[in-house]
Amino acid sequence: MNSQAKALLEVSSLSMRFGGLLAVDGVSLSVMDKEVFAIIGPNGAGKTTVFNCISGFYQPSSGDISLDGTSIARQPSHQVAQQGLVRTFQNIRLFKSMTVVENLLVAQHHQVNTNLLWGLLKTPAYRKSEKEALQRAAYWLDQLGLTALANREAGTLSYGLQRRVEIARCMITRPRLLLLDEPAAGLNPHEKQELSELIDRLRREHGVAVLLIEHDMSLIMGISDRILVMEHGKPIVTGTPAQVRSDERVIKAYLGEE
Ligand SMILES: Nc1ncnc2c1ncn2[C@@H]1O[C@H](COP(=O)(O)OP(=O)(O)OP(=O)(O)O)[C@@H](O)[C@H]1O
Questions:
Q1: Which ipTM was obtained for this model?
Q2: Which of 32, 46, 51, 230 could form a cystine bridge with 41, CB 3.0-4.6 A?
């Protein structure tokens, strides 16, 4: 890792308090272009709270978060998303009664020209933007191996496939940084293997950086460039999988529990 390179995401001294509970206490991390960066730690360590702060769902109590040099710490989630930082959720949030392709079309609504009058008049400009949205949806369905399922209701798909649709829905907005909240939860070993390959391909072929929270150690150790270990809201160590695996504090606090 080139220490001179500029970080895509820079989180400095982030803290988040809920009443008397300091859920996140002085977390700093940086994610470089095309890096796969994982946050691990026991239940309640504060990982999801860090994610919620970064993606604009919580306003941090203190600290700063910047994306490509611009502070996003106090921006709402839709603004953060427009700047290229999008996320999935621990509990999948698809429109379950819409089809797979409709879920991908809805995701583009802020990028597609949806001027009401244009829509009513079905002007050539409106039709062109609609056609382009459909082409982009077809492209991402193909990239994620979902083409055959385009017209299936999202809620009828297996857990693993719904997670894939969620990732497609993120990628269609062309993010620079993709946040995945426990993407392997509920997946079988074969699906986990496919997920690892997918994350690697997204970064190599589509140039996206990935920040993820995950409990599956073999997946994390296999795909991450760097890992931050948290405990009780505090950062314990940041390092490569090999460094983290051999760190005494980590073994004691986390891996020792396994
Ligand atoms: N909105 C909230 N209001 C009050 N307390 C909260 C809120 N969100 C999280 N917490 C508390 O903050 C602490 C950290 O929770 P968080 O969900 O960030 O942990 P986590 O590391 O993601 O855990 P898990 O691995 O179980 O998802 C916990 O004690 C949790 O109860």
A1: 0.96
A2: 230
